[in-house]
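Q&A log
Question type: sequence-to-structure
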Amino acid sequence: LKFNIKMTNCEKLFAEYKNLISIDLSAFYAQEIYTMESMFLNCENLKSVNFSNFDSGKLTSMKEMFKGCINLEEIKFSSLNAINITDMSEMFCNCGLKYIQFPHINSKKLVNMEGMFSDCKNLKNVDFSSFITENVNNMSNLFKGCQNLEMIDFSKLNTRKVLNMSKMFMEADLKNIDLSTLNTENVKDLSYFFSKTKNLNNNHLSSLKLKKAYDLSKMFEGCDLNNISLSYIDAQYAVDFFGFLSECKNIKINKNSTLNLRKCKNANALFYKCDLSKVNFSFIYIKNVENMH
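Response status: OK
Response body:
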């Protein structure tokens, strides 16, 4: 399908269109479009989209644009004018792409990337080298459920203004992922950050900066923590530790680990359904905790 019509609103334009397999938008007049929200929502058989020479200067939202496109294989971007885009939440949620490479785009106004790649079970690589994220404040659920990640260069991802990384890697597999360049120094919400994450190790924790973190509830819920050192977790100002280590398998706290709950108010369900036979309780500072059941 080749498309060359002038429009201003493309919300749900092709949503649920089961017969759409390929679409060429290279001749699409997009200069007046302000939203492409859910444009291809649940187009289950869509395999390729051509956005070559796409000029969308007034576009503000690409929310859920390809959500549910489970067989999507290719998106061609030669250029993308994204100067006014603020919302890309769930843009690729539950789609079939293995590799995502953005063209050089001006996305300085982008603030919301919630769930942008969530549940992309085939996703292996995302290239952020030409993607501007300097004003993004929400990256919650960003890679939730991504089970085949191989290469993410977080040094190209500017996260200095991000406040919310809740569920960022929930149910993801981090076997081949390096988090050493992921900047978390200003993040306040890290709840469920590694919840049920597979192949978590000390290398994933060693560079985390949590000094401004407020909410760490269920951060490690359901993880295999055998020989994980919590000495890397400097979260002395966090208030909420609800279910922080709940349902963790093979929990074994290294002798030198210290969990500082100095400012903690809520530590309910801290060790819910855990085997505590290998836990040394002397490592926990709980002087100011108000709730701990």
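Response note: The two ends are 60 Å apart (CA to CA).
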